[in-house]
Amino acid sequence: MKKLTALVLAALLLLGLLAGCASTGDGDTTDYSAMTIEELKPLIKTATEGKLTMVTSPDFAPYEFYSLDENNTPTLAGFDIALGQYIADFLGLELEIVPMDFNGTILELATKKADIGMAGYSPDPERADSMDFSNIYYTGGQSFVTTQANAALFPDLASTNNAEYQIGAQIGSIQAGLAKENSPDADIVELSKVTDIISEVLSGKLDGAYIETVVAESYAKTYPDLAVVLNVPYDQEGSVVGVSKGNAPLLAAVNLAIAQALEDGSMEQFVAEANALAEGNTYEGLLNEDGEAATEPAE
Ligand code: ARG
């Protein structure tokens, strides 16, 4: 008898659990990833109707930065910006880009003020609560940078782990994690902009920094004193679009747009154009209230 009660109880518990599972989320079991863009379009809801609001952190050439023309007029450029426009066009939405510090982009997505974020995001499981990840649209790598003068001090990652060193990484980035993991004894200095990190490495305030390889190489072209010395292993390699959580039709549509951009050669072209522009006159950071590049790029 006791055994029976236990069995009944167990069965009830299981039922309860199953019911619990089914009732989480909105019960929507539609497979949006099997739909075409035309089928998805009417199902996509965005923060502002008819618009695709995208947050970005323009301190990250060639992903996103300001390109300056001969009058020093800044234009938002980079392959994330170009891909963002491509996605908006593909979805039939008007693109609105809101630039802010990197950490802010993650918060905006988490509070669903933005529909997508494009800021060279790595699909870091620790930020999976704040956004959904698209498929990978670009694959880079991670590096440790220092100055040419100090390059010989860093033959391997172990040499970065020294209590004498001040080592930079961007707030909220996976590089901050890489710094703590590989240089735990060093003084890790977290700054909100990659551009500030580069200037502090160049001025000797920081002994080194963790930066994404393509970004480090792009800045090294502009500032030849910057040395990209070590490759840093990271297991979530690749960049994804951050999509407002739980917006399955939007996520599916973004993935369709990415697949097409990779296939039709657009992405390759965006990367080439961004690299070429990043070699010219650029400004990284946020503009002042008058929409001007607030300070001169670091010397
Ligand atoms: N890939 C790194 C991350 O996801 C760094 C991205 C930084 N992006 C930027 N626009 N500053 O954490």
What does this molecule look like?
- With 299 residues, the chain is an alpha/beta fold.
- The protein has nine helices and 13 strands.
- The chain has helices at 2-23, 37-40, 79-91, 102-110, 174-182, 194-202, 213-222, 248-263, 266-278; strands at 51-56, 65-68, 74-77, 94-99, 116-121, 132-138, 142-147, 166-170, 187-191, 208-212, 226-232, 239-243, 282-283.
- A five-stranded mixed beta sheet has the order 4-1-5-12-6.
- β8 (166-170), α5 (174-182) and β9 form a beta-alpha-beta unit.
- α3 crosses α8 and α3 packs antiparallel against α9.
- The longest helix has 22 residues, at 2-23.
- The termini are far apart.
- Residues 57, 59-60, 63-64, 102, 119-122, 124, 170, 173-175, 194, 212 line the site of arginine (ARG).
- Arginine binds at residues 57, 59-60, 63-64, 102, 119-122, 124, 170, 173-175, 194, 212.
Write the layout of secondary structure elements.
Layout: H1 2-23, H2 37-40, E1 51-56, E2 65-68, E3 74-77, H3 79-91, E4 94-99, H4 102-110, E5 116-121, E6 132-138, E7 142-147, E8 166-170, H5 174-182, E9 187-191, H6 194-202, E10 208-212, H7 213-222, E11 226-232, E12 239-243, H8 248-263, H9 266-278, E13 282-283
Parallel strand pairs: 1-4, 1-5, 8-9, 8-10
Antiparallel strand pairs: 2-3, 2-13, 5-12, 6-12, 7-10, 7-11
Helix pairs in contact: 3-8, 3-9
This protein binds arginine.
General shape: globular
State the end-to-end CA separation: 83 Å
Radius of gyration: 22 Å
Order of SSEs, N→C? HHEEEHEHEEEEHEHEHEEHHE
Give the distinct bound molecules. arginine
Number of beta-strand segments: 13
Q: What does the average pLDDT come to?
A: 90
pLDDT under 50 segments (min length 5)? 12-24
